[in-house]
Structure formats: structure tokens, C-alpha cells
Amino acid sequence: MSSPLLDVWEAASTSPYSPSVGKGAQFTIAFLLLFTSLFLAGVFSLNRSIITLPILGIPASLAFGFGAVYMICAVGVYV
């Protein structure tokens, strides 16, 4: 009698995990995302309205969030 979890474990052992963004590119991606978020937040702060919120504010927030996580990983601080 085989366990479904054991079957998943055996299937995963033949295909190792490879991240979509390699360790060498994390700093570059993080810097670009943080720079983009700074730019978008600056433009949004100059022209605040309900119309520019989904166009500038939300992408700036997402870019900062992902950029901060990538930067934390790129400089070697693992949380």
C-alpha cells in the first residue's frame, strides 16, 4: 500500500527546485523594483487623485514590497 505523500516525495526527488530568479540576479531585480517604486511613488505624490491610485499607487506599493523582499534575500538576510 503506497502513501500519496510518499509518491509526491519520490516524484519531487527526480526534479530539483530551480528558482525563477537566480541568486546572482536578485540584487539587480531588487534595485530595479525599488527604484521603480520610488519613481512611481514620487509621481503619485505630485498628482494624488482617485484616478491615479490604481495607475501609480498600487504598482508602486507592489514594486516596493517585492523589491524589499528581493533585496533582503540578495544581501543575505534570511527571514
Automatic annotation (TrEMBL):
GO terms for cellular component: oligosaccharyltransferase complex. Pfam families: Ost5. Keywords: Membrane, Transmembrane, Transmembrane helix. The keyword Oxidoreductase does not apply. InterPro entries: TMEM258/Ost5 (IPR007915). Belongs to the OST5 family. This is Dolichyl-diphosphooligosaccharide-protein glycosyltransferase subunit OST5. It comes from Polyplosphaeria fusca.
